[in-house]
Design a protein that fits this description.
Blueprint lengths: L1 H13 L6 H24 L13 E9 L7 H19 L3 E6 L3 H9 L6 H7 L2 H5 L2 E9 L4 E9 L4 E2 L3 E5 L5 H12 L3 E7 L3 E6 L19 E9 L5 E6 L3 E8 L6 E8 L13 E7 L7 E7 L14 E5 L10 H10 L3 E5 L5 E4 L7 E7 L2 E8 L6 E6 L3 H36 L3 H12 L4 H13 L7 H21 L3 H19 L18 E3 L7 E3 L56 H5 L19
Parallel strand pairs: 1-2, 1-3, 14-20
Antiparallel strand pairs: 3-4, 4-5, 4-6, 7-8, 7-13, 8-12, 9-10, 9-11, 9-13, 11-12, 14-17, 15-16, 15-18, 18-19, 21-22
Helix pairs in contact: 1-2, 3-7, 9-10, 9-12, 9-13, 10-13, 11-12
């Protein structure tokens, strides 16, 4: 109201006559003073602004429950309280503002039994300001038994309403309880960052109380190479939380610090999902990430099958498990990039899941291991895991056994296709070679063998039958891969088993026969020695009763061989078309008997006496070439 009245006087001063200039200047000064005062009030008000995130300490409240009896008493509780306050100020410094008190009466009984029995709703039921005004609420329980004293600590993050792991320390001497309690408190504490902005794989975060950290050994310090676990809180329009989600299978790795503001950390996202964190937060969505606290020696990974909602998941034994180091390099896309990445960061086989579908994941030099689940060479899952953060993890993967069954059948088909293609090509080469040599009959016989090979149609029929007998997978992804296997095999059959090859070879054979019938060269046939003669007699064509004698080295009778001539029942050879027909000696005739007919060529010395115009064939001569029938 004072500010508005001052503005009113200012406008009245501007409209005043020039004689009142001193009064106008005084009014302007008053306006400036009022404006500066109003800005100071706005900046100082809680609604306008608060202490910056990186310069405000963690508000920590500790509820200390000490069991009475067993050597523990009120003095031990006071000693633990004073030790916590003193060592927090000395070892942590300005990063923490700590208060220690007994738990509320309403929750004292639950804490005396188990610290995890206390829930955020129980705390809200007592006083809603507890979670609104504090960053961390530590539940500390100290008990004793005849052998040892036990300290149990669990952290509840007030903003995210999220419990950390339970930390347990055991000591024998009561005097060591106070230091052990502070050590357990440090171990349970998780530093936090606020996710400001970023893309799918790169996020910008701001460190809580980073400006108050003076030493890298501070429990609130987060450095390059550290890993964080993101948590998202969703509110309604009134600011009341509706859902708290721990982003599963997702961790942030701090890559570097901002050069201008070292409290801003650039983080890389290791996740089993493509986009686990999207966009920046707001009043309806608050995004934080917490430092990792490993409290176990290893983590048991249980692999189960993905099933429908009304079905029970069952374990998957024999799943191959591999591990790689986490890398901040861009994800490879091309085969060359994947090969280079595999050489740079090779996978190490951890083993296979047992009959329970479980395998123990052990820690190694880095907090996070990138675990790969494979079955039959097929990648099922890529999971970032922090060994020791949880006792057990469950990963549901598609049951890949139907795909393995299909893959086994398809591999058999691939082998058959390769053999069939090789046989077809080999026969095609042999047929063409026989045609080049003029051996048309042999080429036709090879073509008959070619026709007995399996065809594209029969191969497709067998593929369809195998696919009908294939076990269908309830998982759409696995079933899609099965369908792709059969579809790719059909494409292979269509590509390599061309039905046109059969008709092409048949056309070549028909063309060779046509040329041979029109006057092409005859096919040479090897000579067979005639018994009791010095020459060689060639067997006549089918249906001939005698053998045709040919004079080796002599000029054959006039005319060309007629490959298409029918067999001569009287012994006329296929090549007798040019000399009016040549008859062989009758059955039972002595060797060297003359053959009748002018221009007859026979074997033996008697041939020339019977037919002066005939030419005798010397002993050992080759028979004349015969055309195939």
């Amino acid at each position: 109201m004072t500010f508005l009245m001052t503005l009113r006087h200012h406008f009245q001063a501007r409209t005043a006559p020039s004689s009142d200039r001193p009064a106008q200047r005084r009014a302007m000064g008053a306006v400036m003073a009022s404006v500066l005062g109003a800005m100071a009030m706005l900046l100082a008000s809680p609604a306008a602004g608060q202490t910056p995130w990186e310069y405000s300490p963690y508000q920590i409240r500790v509820w200390l429950s000490v069991e009475h009896g067993g050597g523990l008493n009120g003095r031990i509780a006071e000693e633990i309280k004073s030790t916590l306050l003193r060592r927090a100020e000395a070892n942590v410094g300005a990063c923490w503002t700590v208060s220690v008190e007994p738990p509320p009466v309403e929750l004292a009984g639950d804490m005396a039994v188990d610290v995890t029995l206390v829930t955020p709703d129980d705390v809200d039921a007592i006083d809603k300001k507890i979670l609104l005004e504090n960053d961390k609420l530590f539940l500390v329980r100290v008990t004793a038994n005849p052998r040892e004293n036990v300290v149990t600590v669990v952290e509840m993050d007030c903003r995210m309403r999220h419990f950390g792991p339970v930390v347990t320390h055991r000591v024998r001497q009561p005097d060591a309880l106070a230091p052990a309690t502070f050590d357990a408190l440090l171990e349970a504490f998780a530093p936090m960052v606020r996710i400001e902005d970023g893309t799918d794989r790169n996020l910008i975060t701001r460190l809580r109380a980073g400006g108050l950290i003076t030493d890298k050994d501070s429990p609130a310090y987060i450095g390059v190479g550290d890993f964080l676990q993101p948590i998202i809180r969703k509110n309604n329009r009134l600011g009341v939380h509706t859902r708290i989600d721990v982003v599963v299978w997702t961790y942030l790795e701090v890559e570097d610090r901002n050069k201008i503001n070292p409290n801003i950390l650039n983080c890389y996202v290791h996740s089993a999902m493509r986009s686990p964190i999207r966009g920046r937060g707001g009043s309806r969505k608050i995004q934080y990430a917490f430092g990792l606290r490993k409290t176990h020696d290893s983590t048991m990974l249980n692999v189960v099958a993905q099933v429908r909602r009304n079905e029970t998941a069952y374990p998957l034994p024999g799943i191959e498990v591999y591990s790689k180091r986490p890398s901040t390099d861009p994800l490879p896309e091309t085969p060359e990039e994947k090969l280079a990445a595999a050489k740079k960061n090779p996978a190490v086989k951890l083993g296979e899941t047992d009959w329970r579908g479980a395998i123990d994941i052990l820690p190694y030099e880095m907090p996070v291991r990138i675990v790969y689940l494979k079955n039959g060479g097929q990648l099922l899952r890529r999971l970032p895991i922090v060994p020791g953060l949880d006792t057990q993890l469950i990963s549901d993967v598609p049951d890949d056994d139907p795909r393995l069954q299909a893959e086994s059948a398809i591999k058999g088909f691939h082998g058959q296709i390769k053999d069939l293609v090789a046989q077809r090509q080999m026969l095609a080469i042999r047929i063409k070679k026989r045609l080049q040599e003029g051996k048309v009959e042999e080429a036709r016989e090879l073509h008959a063998e070619f026709g007995k090979l399996e065809t594209r149609s029969s191969m497709n029929d067998r593929l369809n039958k195998a696919q009908r007998q294939q076990v269908e997978s309830p998982n759409k992804y696995v079933q899609g891969r099965i369908d792709d296997l059969y579809g790719d095999t059909r494409s292979m059959v269509a590509k390599y088993l061309r039905p046109e090859l059969d008709s092409e070879l048949l056309g070549l054979i028909v063309e060779a026969e046509r040329k041979s019938a029109a006057g092409g060269g005859a096919e040479p046939v090897a000579a067979q020695p005639a018994p009791g003669s010095g020459g060689s007699g060639a067997a006549g064509p089918a249906g001939g009763s005698g053998s045709q004698a040919a004079a080796g080295g002599a000029t054959p009778a006039s005319g060309q061989a007629n490959a298409g001539a029918p067999p001569n029942s009287g012994g006329t050879s296929a090549g007798a078309a040019g000399n009016g027909g040549v008859t062989s000696p009758p059955p039972g005739a002595p060797v060297g008997a003359a053959a009748s007919g002018p221009g007859t060529t026979s074997t033996g010395p008697a041939a020339n006496t019977a037919n002066p115009g005939a030419t005798s064939a010397p002993a050992g001569s080759a028979s004349a070439p015969l055309s195939p029938p």
